[in-house]
Amino acid sequence: xxxxxxxxxxxxxxxxxxxxxxxxxxxxxxxxxxxxxxxxxxxxxxxxxxxxxxxxxxxxxxxxxxxxxxxxxxxxxxxxxxxxxxxxxxxxxxxxxxxxxxxxxxxxxxxxxxxxxxxxxxxxxxxxxxxxxxxxxxxxxxxxxxxxxxxxxxxxxxxxxxxxxxxxxxxxxxxxxxxxxxxxxxxxxxxxxxxxxxxxxxxxxxxxxxxxxxxx
Length: 216
Ligand SMILES: [Zn+2]
Ligand SMILES: [Zn+2]
Known about the structure:
This protein has helices spanning 35-45, 60-63, 66-71, 83-87, 93-99, 174-185, 204-210; strands at 2-8, 13-19, 25-29, 49-54, 75-78, 115-116, 122-125, 128-134, 143-147, 152-156, 159-160, 163-164, 193-196, 202-203. The chain has 216 residues and is α/β, with parallel strands linked by helices. It has one domain (2-210): 4-Layer Sandwich (Metallo-beta-lactamase, Chain A), CATH 3.60.15. The structure holds zinc ion (ZN) (2 copies).
């Protein structure tokens, strides 16, 4: 699976560019500040068609540039429990700007979600079958995107290498996050590579053995 990643924006949020095996289409997973400026020229230079933006959850650091990818023709995919966060992002501008003063009003442009997805749904894009699992706890609308044939899961901020997503943000819920990790992430095959919203990759087996916050 051809996956390229960059950590962008004020809190180093990962964005992933997945290109189809035939080299014709691509999808972007999460849209931190700077992702559109970094990726859209690459996509254009390579003659790729960007079909989808997959949003793992509605926190600002993952959705800031969603508007620009939608403008470039991408269908926007997310979970409905984050509808307000994504489609009415301007409501949260003051709060984010209070602790990230480098953010401008232009960083809070609402985007219309094309398709809401939940556990059991899937998205066929870039030549792959992305299976959706709802993993709330860090954020109500958190999802992971599992590509079984490639043994890869894009997990957003549910779990990190040796850590888990914070649950002290509005609508965070620690028991719910632990349940999501145990029932939706630790039930994936141990050799599944996890590509999180921040930091480096890990695997299901590694986290089951060593994660100090989420024991199996
Ligand atoms: Zn988050
Ligand atoms: Zn994040």
